[in-house]
TrEMBL record, chains A, B:
This is Zn-dependent hydrolase. Keywords: Hydrolase. Residues 211-306 form the Peptidase M20 dimerisation domain. GO terms for molecular function: hydrolase activity. The keyword Transport does not apply. The lineage of its organism: Bacteria, Bacillati, Bacillota, Bacilli, Lactobacillales. Gene3D superfamilies: 3.30.70.360, Zn peptidases. It comes from the Bacteria. The keyword Hydrolase applies. It holds the Pfam family Peptidase_M20. Belongs to the peptidase M20 family.
Length: 407, 407
């Protein structure tokens, strides 16, 4: 149905209108509550009103576009409108406009649904302007407020939010409302990794989101002269760091499939060519769908750090992130598997390695996600790209799922 | 002889006068051509003139204090007057004032020597103000000029030099002169490592200075999402770095005694907890008395970097320091060994792991060094400390050596 030329052209046209708001910068820039973001949410409200959807905005700037059904149960789809700094065109926006497209086509072809169909465009997911993520979905689903935050330019979260949301709420025919929770939530999104593209699968059926833990490791040794300190007299914090990372990499390899282990940040002190490092600080990021595997890895970190302490070297581990794994709704997943089969698309069931609004929505409503491939697995970068055929396929799956649920 | 109370008190008094110039700062601060440095070289000229030495200053601010002999051959001793930022009390200054003390005592007890005795206080050795080391001894010995340099505050080397040297050369009875090279040079210095203190040896007889090579290694991989990029799809520059450092540490351990291997500086790009590092840059510092061992280590670096390249990861090695090892004069060394035995001092023959003015002097004159222990092997830090007994012993050995050579 989406193959119909007009519907696809509308999607493409709307997509272009939003991404042109970032003209003049290398990538997409719709940081939450920024002028570009206000313009994009406003355009979206216009797109919804054009096809007769009810438009609502809550006090965090989440936009809701409802196609009222015969009853007041709600089947929702959507994603987020914000981007990272110099982000890609598809992350977030694809799920918003793809969801709108699915509802538009269903309305045109099948009329009023049994349950209300709702598109949600969450205000913020990336955490790129303020030091907080998922503030949109957390406000909608959990009534959780972001707290007192400041961006780098002196704007507080609340000032930026009020200034932006006032603008949206003053648009014609916009209701100021925090609508009730949906019966289900489906998020269409590009994969932010290379598994689909490498496996030549058109659709990723997302069974959940990995649990994620992060630690800050501090190794304290003794700084000394690189030339005059004999090797057996050193307490070299960097050499101990290398040993620790090696051991953990080996352990991660033994665990194998599904565990990611990343040391992304490492600082050496004093960081001079002719001085033995006296101190290092580095981060460990570990993710897996199974909490027990993460427990195992955590034990390995603690054991390794104990082993490396020798009276002269101290190793301190501090866990600063512990996000539980999310398991998405099994019924929706199996329904989507059947849809994909029926449509003759290639697919794979997978666990997302990154967080999404669905992580939050899953805490309050049965939730599922549909991934489409991203060339080279690239995301959060200007060269993020998904071909039209894959974009269309993803919208078709979403539409069939919404149809099965709402009609 | 130095045990004589008056001579030791004079040394202590002069030492205190110079280190008090840095009062109010945590450590010693006599960066070349700074007000403290000018005051210190001026005081030294005064100390020399008080006991009738001829004082000379060249255009780099090196100070020469001569006790003229019956002929014009010169037996020289000395070290440098400058310090690092917040340095210790002994590095450099001990060799200058210890040398002066030796000459003072010899003059008092034995009168005019056969050969001229010369104390040299080099202007600069540490490279702490301008990005160049040994500029004093290189100017004296090799007529090498420092080139156009700037410190962090906008002073050029030449402006700072001229302003400071003019002050010294305008002092009463100071000759403006670049004197001829000596027949021998002896430098008294604290060990900048823990070998003497750990081995309970009072004197280090320095057979040479290690060769030193430094490389800048750049590993280029691919930056990517820490959660969504499967482990077998990563080109993690930091993990490759860890592998490379591990392999080299293993190789260094096999070579064993005498080789030092230090990765002192390591920068990770982009250095964020949730991003796989796309690039690293790090330094390798390797030192050994034998060039062949350094060649072997260099081969290991090149071999390892070749092995780690896999089409997605590139490893670039750039050598930016290659200092040849220095072998000091064998005759002076064995003479000093005999002196130490005669004086009943414990000693060990050793190779210096750090550079000294003697490295430069050795290129033009037979040269030797005498080390005394430094508590904890500490240097270049405010808590650098050598006990009085060890300071005295070092001066005694120097004095006996100068006596044997000049009288």
């Amino acid at each position: 149905m989406i193959r119909e030329t007009n519907d696809w052209l509308t999607f493409k046209h709307q997509f272009l209108q939003i991404i042109q708001l970032s003209d003049g910068t290398e990538g997409q820039n719709r940081l939450v509550y920024s002028p570009n973001w206000i313009a994009a949410q406003s355009e979206l409200i216009g797109f919804g009103q054009q096809i007769g959807l009810t438009s609502m905005v809550d006090t965090y700037g989440n936009v809701y576009l409802d196609l009222p059904g015969k009853d007041d149960q709600v089947i929702a789809a959507g994603s987020h409108m914000d981007t990272v700094v110099n982000g890609g065109k598809y992350d977030g926006l694809y799920g918003v406009l793809g969801g709108l497209q699915a509802i538009r086509t269903l309305k045109k072809q099948l009329g009023t649904p049994q349950h209300t169909l709702r598109l949600i465009s969450f205000s913020e997911e990336e955490g790129s302007r303020f030091n907080a993520t998922f503030t949109g979905s957390k406000f909608y689903a959990l009534h959780e407020s972001a707290g007192s935050l400041e961006d780098g330019t002196g704007w507080t979260f609340d000032d930026a939010r009020q200034q932006a949301v006032t603008r949206l709420q003053s648009l014609k025919n916009v209701l100021i409302k925090h609508p009730s929770l949906p019966k289900s939530f489906t998020e269409l999104h590009i994969e932010q990794g290379p598994r689909l593209i490498n496996n030549h699968a058109q659709i990723g059926l997302v069974a959940g989101i990995v649990g994620q833990r992060r630690w800050l490791i501090t190794i304290q040794g003794e700084s000394n002269h690189a030339g005059t300190t004999p090797m057996n007299n050193r307490h070299d914090a960097l050499q101990t760091t290398v040993t620790m990372i090696s051991k953990l990499a080996e352990f991660a390899q033994q665990i194998g499939d599904g565990l990611t282990f990343t040391v992304g940040q490492l600082n050496v002190i004093p960081n001079a060519a002719n001085v033995i490092p006296g101190k290092t600080q580095f981060t460990i990021d570990a993710r897996h769908a199974d909490n027990q595997v993460l427990d195992q890895f955590e034990q390995a970190i603690n054991k390794t750090s104990d082993q490396l302490e020798d009276g002269q070297i101290t190793v301190t581990t501090e866990q600063y992130v512990k996000d539980e794994p999310a398991t998405f709704d099994a019924t929706l997943l199996s329904q989507n598997e059947q849809i994909v089969q029926r449509l003759g698309l290639t697919s794979q069931v997978m666990v997302s390695g990154a967080g999404h609004d669905s992580y939050v929505m899953n805490q309050v409503s049965p939730t599922t996600m549909i991934f489409v491939p991203s060339e080279g697995g690239i995301s959060h970068a200007p060269n993020e790209y998904t071909c039209s055929a894959d974009l269309k396929a993803g919208i078709e799956v979403l539409m069939a799922s919404l149809q099965a649920q709402a009609y």
